[in-house]
Specification:
By secondary structure, the protein is an all-beta fold. It is 2% helix and 47% strand. β69 and β70 form a beta hairpin.
Length: 875
Amino acid sequence: MYRYVCAAGLIVAAAAVAQPPQNLYPLPRIETVFPAGVRVGTSVDVTLTGTDLEDATGLTFSHPGISAEIIVPVEPKPDPKAAPKGKPKQGNRRKRPAGPVTVKAKVTVAADVPVGTYDVRVVNQWGVSNPRAFVVGTLPEVNEKEPNNDVPQAQRVALGTVVNGVISSSTDVDYFVFAGKAGQRVLLHCATSSIDSKAMPLVEVFNAAQRRVGMNRNYQDGDALADVTLPADGDYFVRVSEFAYQYGGADWYYRLTLGSGPWIDAVFPPRIEPGKATTVTVVGRNLPGGKPAGTMDGKLVESVEVTVTPPKKIEPYRGRIEPVAGTLDCFEYRFAGSNPVPIYLASEPVVRESAADNDVPEKAQALPVPCEVAGRIDRPNDRDWYSFQAKKGEVFIIDLFAERVGSHMDAALSVHNAATKQVLAAEAQLDDDNETLHPIAFYTRTSDPPSYRFTAPQAGTFLVRVSSREASVEYGPRSAYQLRIGKPRPDFRVVVVPRCRELPAATAIHPGEDAALDVLVQRVDGFTGPVTISAAGLPPGVTATPTFVGTNQRWATLVLTAAKGAKDATTTFAVTATATIDGKPVATTARSAAITWAIGQGQNVPAIARLDQTLPLAVRPGRAEFRIATDLAKATVKSKDGTVAPVKPGLLVRPGDKITVPVKVHWLWWTARPNPATLFVEPTVPQTNQQSSPFTGQTINLQVPVPKEKGEAAVTIDLRPNCPPGQYAATFRGDTSIPFQRNPDVPQKNPITISTFSAPFEFTVIPSALARLTVRAPKPQLKPGESTEITVRADRLLDYAGEFQIAVTFPKEGDMLIAAPARIAAGQTETKVKITAYSTAKPVKVPNVLVTVTGVYDGKYPVAQNGKVNLTIQK
C-alpha cells in the first residue's frame, strides 16, 4: 500500500506545514527520532524533534525492557554584570516555540529485549505523543558524520555495521566506504519507510575506480536494498541520496545496514494454517543452507525449506504493518541476523499450486474445496486456472490475497462456468477493492479483488482464473498469492484510531472532560450484526460508556469521560469488541493505529498510517469548558404519515422515521456568554460511501447552531426509507471556540477549538414489512351458511423464516361473517383462510375486509402488515 500512497500522500505530507493547526489544544507530536535505533544491551543518546514537546518528563516504549532518561540541557550561567531583562517567568507552560522542539534522552535497551522495531513516545505536561519507530538490533551502530558529500570525504565504516544518517537537503549526498573481499556478497539495506521516515533513497555502490557495481531503490516501499557481489578485494563506496533530489530535511532520516548476513525476500506459502507445523519455502540471499533458486530482479536468490509452527499465542509482528494488512492475523519469522517477515494465518486447509502448465482452462488444477491454494505468478504473462466442484445453490467465498500479504502483483480474478463457458464474474468486477475503513486516517483500499460471494447456479464444475495486471514485468518469488475458496465464516476485526484524523496523535483528556476515539470495524464473509465496543484498563476516574457499531455499519465513536477528580496519569488501555455470530458470543481486542505523517487540513487524501503497538491515554490537569447530554425522555419520532409521538420504550423506530432528540449544552466555567456551539451527528460509515448509511445525508455532520441565550437544541436523525432493520448507536459531538492561554505568565490568548461528546444512545429499527403481501378471494361470493376461502401469500423478506399469524377483521357490514384461525407456517409462503357466513346472514356487500399478517422480527418485535379483500353475501 505504501508504494501507491507515496506519490500522493507522502509528497503532500512533505509539503504540509509541520506545525499542527494553531486552533487545537497542545498535544505532543514527534516528527523525527535520531538515531532511530540501538544495539541490544547498550545505550545511546537520542534526539527527538516535533511540536509541543517542551518540558518532556520521559519517554515511553512498547517494550518494558527499553528505558530512557531525559537529558536536561545545562542553562548557561547568567552574566552577573548584565542587566536583567524583564520579569522572570514562572511555571512550566511556556510560550509555544517558533520552530520544532528538541528532546534529548539517553535510551538503554536491556540485553534480553528481542530484536525488532518498537514504538517510542514522548511524555510531557500536555500528554503522550504519537509513536515513532525505534529499532533494536544486533550490529554495532555509528552515526553519519558530515561532511561526507563526495568520495574524498567518504565516512569509513566496517561491514556488519548500521549507519544512522539524514538526507538533510534535497541535494545532500552521503558517501561511505568499506573494505571488502572478492566474491563477498554484500547487502546494503537502507531502511526509511519501515522506520517512519519520509526518505525514498537511491543506494549506489562503486568500486575504487568509481565504476558502479550495484544500485537499488524502492525495494519495499521506500526502503532500498542494494545487492552486490564484490568483484575484487579493496575499498567500495556507498552513495545514498534522495531519488530525483526533490526533498530532504530532518524527516528524511535512514538506517543503512552494511552486511553479509541472511536476507529473506519471501516466504511461500504466505499464509499457513494456525497451530499446524508447515513446511514453507524461504527465498532470499545468504540463507543458511540455501540452494540456488534462480534470479529475482536480476540477482541470484536461494531457497531453503523450513518447518514453521505458528505459536499458540500470536506475538505481534514487530515491523511496519500498514492499513492494507492491518486486519489480518500474522506472526513474525526470521533467521538469526536476518530481517523479519510476517507469515499470515489461513482460514482453510492450504494446498500448493502443483500444475506447471495450468495457463489454460483445459488444464485447470482441481482444488479440494474448501481450501486455500498458494500460487505464484512465476514467469512473464503467467496466469493460473483452478477448478472446483459445487452443488446447486452451494455458497462459497472466493478471496484472493496478494498485496495484503506483501505480494508485488496487481491481482485480478475471474470466475467461469466450465460447462457453459459463461463468465460468472469478470476481471472488471473482481479487480481492485476500493472499499476503505477510513478515507484518511486508515486507508485500506487494496489492489486485491474484493471478496466474492459465489452461489452455484447449478451443480457442476466451476473455474477460477488468477492473473496479474503487471505480469509482463513483475513476477517471481515476490509475486505470490493465496486463493481462498471456502464456506462463509462470518467474522470481524476492529481497529481503533485517535480522533485527530489528519494529524499524528494520541488520546489526552482533562478532568471533567470527554475524549473520543474512532472505532473501525472490518466485516468478514457477510457478517452484518452489531458489534459492542467497550474499554478495559482505564486509569482511576476515567470511564467509557459501551457503544456499538450498528448493523452492517463500520464506524463508532468510543467516548471516554474523566471525572472532575481524575488524577494525572499516563497509561495504556484496551478496547474490546464482542458480537454474536451463529448464536455464539465472539470477542476480540481492537488493534491500535496512528497516522505517521500529517497532511494538510481538508485535502482529503489518505494519510500515511500504520498499526502501533500500544493504545496510550494521558490524563492531564486542565478544566472542561462545556458538556452536552441527550434528553432521551423527551425524544420524539415522526412517522412517514406525519404522526409525532414519544419514542417507544427501547427506542423502537421504523425506516423513514425522524428521531428528534433534545441535546442540552451545559457551560461549566464561563460567566460571560460563550461562543456558539455546533452540534454534529457522528457518522457511522465512511463519508465516501454515504449511500450505505442508514441515515440521510443531512445527519452526517449535521450542524445545529446553539444560540448563546439557549442551552438546548433539537437534533433530528432522518432514517432512510430503505434503512435496514437492526440495532444502531448514535453519538453527538459539540464544538466551540474558546480563548486559550498557553503560558500563565503571558496574557496573550488565542482561540482554539474544543470538542465534547454525548454518551451514545441506542435505537432499534424494526422493519416495516417482513414479506410482500398478496391477499385475494378467488370466490368472493358466498351464501348464508356457506364458506369461501381467502388466499394469503407472503413472499418473505430480510431472510425471515418464522411463522406468520393471520387475523381477519370485518367491517360492520360483515358482522355475520366469521374467520377460522389461520397461520403461515415457518418456511412457507402461502395459506388459505376459511370464511363462513352465518345461516341467518342477510345479503350484503362486505368491502374492505382487513387481513392482518403478523411476524415476529428477531424473536421479540411483532411486525404487522395489512391486506384487504371485498366479499359479498348473496341470497
